[in-house]
Write a structure and sequence with these properties.
flat, 0% strand
Length: 593
C-alpha cells in the first residue's frame, strides 16, 4: 500500500525538485512537460495538487513563466473539462500581473482561450470577478492585462453584469497611467464589436472620443485603429459622418506625425469602412493632406496607398478625383526631396495606368515614369523598371518603347548592378513585343554587353536570356546574330568571359539544332580544353557533358567523329594536373557512356 502511495507522489515530487533546481533550462524543460505530468497524476490530483502548487510557486525567470502561461492555455481537458476550467484562473491571474510584457500577453492569450470553456454561470461566478480584480489592481500591469479580457467575457453574461463590464472598461479608458489607456485604446475596437448597437453609440463612441483626444500620442494613434472598427459597425452613412469623420479629420491634422502616419497606414481600411459616399465627400481631401504632409514618413506611407485608394474610389467619380485631386499630388511627389517618398511612389505609380486608361496614361503618367527612370536614387529606377509590364498592358509596347526606350537603354549601363539586372530580365518581353528587326537594331548590342558585365548575376541573367531570345526568334537568328559573337568570347583575355562563353554554349545547345552545335559550338569547346586556367578546363568538361546529355535526350544522331573527339578530349582532361578538372572529366565520361 505504501509503495502505491509513493508511486502516486512520484511525478509531483520530481516536478517540485526540477522546478527548484538552479538550472533555468531544467526548470523550463520541466514546465514544458506539464501536460505529461498532469496525465500521470490524473484530473483530480491535477486540480487539487498540481494547479495549487503552480499558483503558489509563480516566481521564476521570465522564459519559464512564459512557457507556463502558454501551457495553461490548453489545460482545460487535463483538469476535467469545461466544468472545471475555472481551476486554471488563479495561476493565470498571477501571471497576468507580472512585470514582463511578453509573459502578461501570453497569460491574457491563455485566459482568452479558456474563457470560451466557461458556461454563462461559471463566467459570472469566476471569470468576471477575475476581470474586475485585474481592473482594480494597484499596479498598471494588471490593469493593462484586464483590457484584453472584456471582449471575451461580455457576450456570455447577463444584462446587469454587462453594464458593470462597460463601466469597468470606461474606467480603464480614463486611467491615470498612459500604458493602461494605450492598452484600452488597442482593445476598444475589439470590445466595440461585441456590445449592443445602443451601447456602441452611448458608451463606446464617447470612450473613443476621449482616447482620440488623449494627451499621449501613443494612445491617440491606437484610437485610429479603433476608428476602423467603429466605422464598420455603424450601419448608416449619416452616423459614420457624425461619429467618426470629425475624429478622423482631427487625427489627420494631429500635431504628432506618428498619429498622422497611422491614419495613412490604415487609410484604405478606413475608406472601405466609411463607404463610397464619404470617400468622395470627405476622404479625398484628407488623403490629399496626407500626401502633402510635412513629415516624409507620412508622405511615404500615403504614397504607398495611392493605387489602392484610386481602385476603391466610386466608379462614377474615380476619373475626376484622380485627375483633379490625386495626380497633382503625385506630380509633386515625383520631385520630392526625400528618396524614401519617391521610392514608395515608384512602387505603386505604375499601377495607376490600368485604372486611368490609355489616353490619360500617355498624356499624364508617361512623363512621370520617365522622370522617375532618370531619378538619382537607384531604388526609384528599380521600382519603375520592375513594374513596366502593367503599363505595357495598357499602352502597348510600341508606345512604351518610343517613350521610355531611350531611358531604358541608358539604364542598361547604370552604375547600380541591380538596375542593370532588372532591365536585363525585362529584355525578352521587349524582344517579343518589338520584333526581331527592332531588337537587332536597338537592343541586341545591350544584351551582348551584359555578357561581359563585371557582376556575375548580370552575366548569368544575360546568358539565360539568350535561351529565351532564341526560343522567340529561332535558330536561324541565333546562327546569324548570337553564336558568332558568343564564340568570339572564347579568345577573350579575361578568363571569366571565356567561362561565360561556355555558359552561353550550354544554354544555346538546349534550343539550337544539332548541326549548329556540331559545326560551330563543339570546335570552340574542344579548343578551350587547352585553356591555361583550370576553371575554364573543368567547365569544358561540364559543357561536353551537357551537350552529350542533350543529344541523347533529343534522340538525335550526332556525328560519330564528334563523339570520338569528345571522348579523346575527356580522356586527356581525366589525366589533368588539377583535381577538379579530373573529377568533372570523369563525370562527363560517365554521361558519354
Amino acid at each position: 500500500m505504501t509503495e502505491t502511495g509513493d508511486d502516486a507522489l512520484y511525478p509531483i515530487a520530481v516536478l517540485i525538485d526540477e522546478l527548484r533546481n538552479e538550472d533555468v533550462q531544467l526548470r523550463l524543460t520541466s514546465i514544458k512537460k506539464l501536460s505529461t505530468i498532469s496525465l500521470a497524476l490524473g484530473v483530480e490530483r491535477t486540480r487539487t495538487e498540481l494547479i495549487p502548487f503552480l499558483t503558489d510557486t509563480i516566481y521564476d525567470e521570465d522564459e519559464v513563466l512564459l512557457a507556463l502561461a502558454e501551457q495553461l492555455g490548453c489545460f482545460t481537458p487535463l483538469v476535467g473539462g469545461r466544468e472545471y476550467a475555472h481551476i486554471l484562473l488563479p495561476p493565470l491571474e498571477s501571471l497576468a500581473t507580472v512585470e514582463e510584457t511578453v509573459v502578461r500577453d501570453k497569460a491574457v492569450e491563455s485566459l482568452r482561450n479558456i474563457a470560451g470553456d466557461h458556461s454563462p454561470e461559471s463566467m459570472e461566478r469566476y471569470f468576471v470577478p477575475l476581470v474586475k480584480r485585474l481592473t482594480q489592481g494597484d499596479w498598471f500591469t494588471s490593469r493593462t492585462s484586464a483590457c484584453g479580457l472584456y471582449s471575451v467575457s461580455y457576450p456570455h453574461v447577463s444584462t446587469p453584469v454587462k453594464e458593470e463590464l462597460r463601466n469597468g472598461f470606461r474606467t480603464l479608458c480614463q486611467d491615470d497611467t498612459p500604458m493602461v489607456r494605450r492598452a484600452a485604446a488597442g482593445k476598444l475596437g475589439e470590445f466595440a464589436k461585441v456590445v449592443e448597437a445602443d451601447s456602441l453609440k452611448n458608451v463606446i463612441i464617447p470612450m473613443f472620443n476621449t482616447l482620440a483626444s488623449d494627451e499621449q500620442d501613443s494612445v491617440r494613434l491606437l484610437a485610429v485603429e479603433a476608428c476602423v472598427a467603429i466605422a464598420s459597425l455603424l450601419p448608416k452613412t449619416e452616423e459614420k459622418e457624425q461619429y467618426v469623420v470629425p475624429t478622423l479629420k482631427n487625427a489627420c491634422e494631429d500635431k504628432s506625425w506618428r498619429v498622422r502616419y497611422m491614419v495613412a497606414d490604415k487609410f484604405t481600411e478606413l475608406q472601405k469602412a466609411l463607404g463610397p459616399d464619404l470617400t468622395k465627400n470627405e476622404l479625398v481631401t484628407v488623403f490629399q493632406a496626407l500626401l502633402k504632409d510635412n513629415e516624409a514618413e507620412v508622405r511615404a506611407m500615403a504614397a504607398q496607398k495611392i493605387k489602392d485608394f484610386a481602385e476603391m474610389l466610386p466608379q462614377g467619380s474615380r476619373e475626376p478625383v484622380i485627375m483633379n485631386n490625386i495626380l497633382p499630388c503625385v506630380k509633386d511627389l515625383v520631385n520630392d526631396t526625400n528618396q524614401h517618398v519617391k521610392t514608395a511612389l515608384a512602387s505603386v505609380i505604375m499601377g495607376l495606368a490600368p485604372i486611368v486608361g490609355k489616353d490619360t496614361t500617355i498624356e499624364h503618367l508617361l512623363p512621370l515614369f520617365l522622370a522617375q527612370l532618370k531619378d538619382d536614387c537607384p531604388e526609384v529606377r528599380l521600382n519603375i523598371i520592375s513594374n513596366l509590364e502593367s503599363v505595357n498592358k495598357v499602352i502597348g509596347i510600341q508606345q512604351l518603347s518610343q517613350s521610355l526606350l531611350p531611358a531604358i537603354v541608358e539604364l542598361a549601363e547604370d552604375t547600380k548592378w541591380r538596375v542593370r539586372l532588372a532591365i536585363n530580365e525585362y529584355m525578352p518581353l521587349l524582344a517579343e513585343q518589338l520584333g526581331v528587326t527592332f531588337f537587332d537594331e536597338r537592343l541586341n548590342v545591350l544584351c551582348q554587353a551584359w555578357l561581359v558585365d563585371h557582376v556575375f548575376a548580370v552575366r548569368e541573367a544575360a546568358t539565360n536570356n539568350l535561351k529565351r531570345l532564341v526560343a522567340i526568334f529561332g535558330s536561324t537568328w541565333a546562327r546569324a546574330s548570337v553564336v558568332p559573337k558568343v564564340l568570339q568570347m572564347s579568345h577573350d583575355q579575361n578568363y571569366l568571359h571565356r567561362m561565360t562563353c561556355l555558359f552561353c554554349i550550354n544554354v544555346l545547345a538546349e534550343v539550337c539544332e544539332l548541326q549548329l552545335i556540331e559545326e560551330q559550338m563543339l570546335p570552340i569547346v574542344f579548343q578551350m580544353a587547352n585553356d591555361p586556367v583550370a576553371n575554364v578546363r573543368f567547365n569544358v568538361c561540364k559543357s561536353l557533358s551537357t551537350i552529350c546529355g542533350i543529344v541523347k535526350q533529343q534522340n538525335g544522331k550526332a556525328n560519330t567523329g564528334s563523339f570520338t573527339q569528345i571522348r579523346t578530349i575527356l580522356d586527356k582532361l581525366n589525366e589533368d594536373g588539377d583535381v577538379d578538372v579530373r573529377y568533372y572529366a570523369n563525370e562527363a565520361l560517365q554521361v558519354l557512356g
